[in-house]
């Protein structure tokens, strides 16, 4: 009995992970209707693990129930984007300030750069690239040494990745935008390492966050108009 329970749990977790990954990569785009029957057929499983996985994703806010109990992938609104970037700016600017105030420039510049190298290596895969980019920023925020803040940022990470994948998939099909993001991040790291606070802050707030917000808003507007 225990073995059967473990197998069912493992299968449910696999189905959950597959559905969530498809949501983040926009294989299941925002607003699309999904059904237990279709998902069960796609993954070659019974409907029970799919049902449990959908319940979990609904509780996490990735799936919502609409008219006549139809199930949809949660959309992305302009308000969602603004709220996420507002939280990012608060946390990331505070993290940058802390690095300079505590004189952790040298150590943290290399910690951040370690993640940055992985980000550059993911250049041609926009999902992997954006996930690696979010890891760079999560490493920066870790300087605050606050578990609750770490959890807040972790909760934002998947939402942010989905938004950024939207930019690449519907607005920036070439790699020019990725090059801009990489160059901006490189300048932030060097500003930290060389103790140039004003330069690092400018790159973070204006070239990275503000620019990212603008691109995200354009992508969300474009996508939402497209599906209306």
Automatic annotation (TrEMBL):
<keyword id="KW-0805">Transcription regulation</keyword>
<dbReference type="InterPro" id="IPR011711">
    <property type="entry name" value="GntR_C"/>
</dbReference>
<dbReference type="InterPro" id="IPR008920">
    <property type="entry name" value="TF_FadR/GntR_C"/>
</dbReference>
<dbReference type="GO" id="GO:0003700">
    <property type="term" value="F:DNA-binding transcription factor activity"/>
</dbReference>
<dbReference type="InterPro" id="IPR000524">
    <property type="entry name" value="Tscrpt_reg_HTH_GntR"/>
</dbReference>
<keyword id="KW-0238">DNA-binding</keyword>
<keyword id="KW-0804">Transcription</keyword>
<dbReference type="InterPro" id="IPR036388">
    <property type="entry name" value="WH-like_DNA-bd_sf"/>
</dbReference>
<dbReference type="GO" id="GO:0003677">
    <property type="term" value="F:DNA binding"/>
</dbReference>
<feature type="domain" description="HTH gntR-type">
    <location>
        <begin position="9"/>
        <end position="76"/>
    </location>
</feature>
<dbReference type="Pfam" id="PF00392">
    <property type="entry name" value="GntR"/>
</dbReference>
<dbReference type="InterPro" id="IPR036390">
    <property type="entry name" value="WH_DNA-bd_sf"/>
</dbReference>
<protein>
    <submittedName>
        <fullName>GntR family transcriptional regulator</fullName>
    </submittedName>
</protein>
<dbReference type="Pfam" id="PF07729">
    <property type="entry name" value="FCD"/>
</dbReference>
């Amino acid at each position: 009995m225990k073995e059967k329970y473990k197998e069912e749990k493992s299968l449910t977790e696999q189905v959950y992970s597959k559905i969530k990954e498809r949501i983040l990569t926009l294989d299941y785009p925002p607003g699309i209707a999904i059904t237990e029957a279709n998902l069960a057929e796609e993954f070659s499983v019974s409907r029970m693990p799919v049902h449990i996985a959908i319940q979990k994703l609904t509780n996490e806010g990735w799936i919502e129930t609409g008219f006549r109990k139809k199930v949809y992938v949660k959309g992305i609104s302009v308000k969602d984007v603004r709220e996420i970037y507002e939280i990012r700016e608060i946390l990331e600017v505070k993290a940058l300030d802390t690095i300079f105030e505590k004189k952790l420039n040298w150590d943290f510049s290399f910690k951040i750069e370690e993640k940055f190298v992985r980000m550059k290596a993911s250049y041609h895969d926009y999902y992997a690239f954006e996930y690696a980019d979010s890891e760079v920023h999560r490493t920066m925020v870790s300087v605050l040494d606050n578990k609750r803040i770490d959890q807040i940022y972790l909760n934002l990470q998947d939402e942010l990745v989905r938004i950024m994948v939207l930019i690449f998939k519907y607005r920036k099909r070439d790699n020019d935008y990725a090059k801009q993001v990489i160059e901006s991040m490189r300048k932030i790291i060097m500003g930290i390492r060389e103790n140039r606070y004003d330069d690092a802050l400018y790159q973070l707030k204006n070239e990275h966050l503000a620019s990212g917000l603008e691109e995200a808003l354009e992508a969300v507007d474009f996508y939402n108009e497209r599906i209306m």
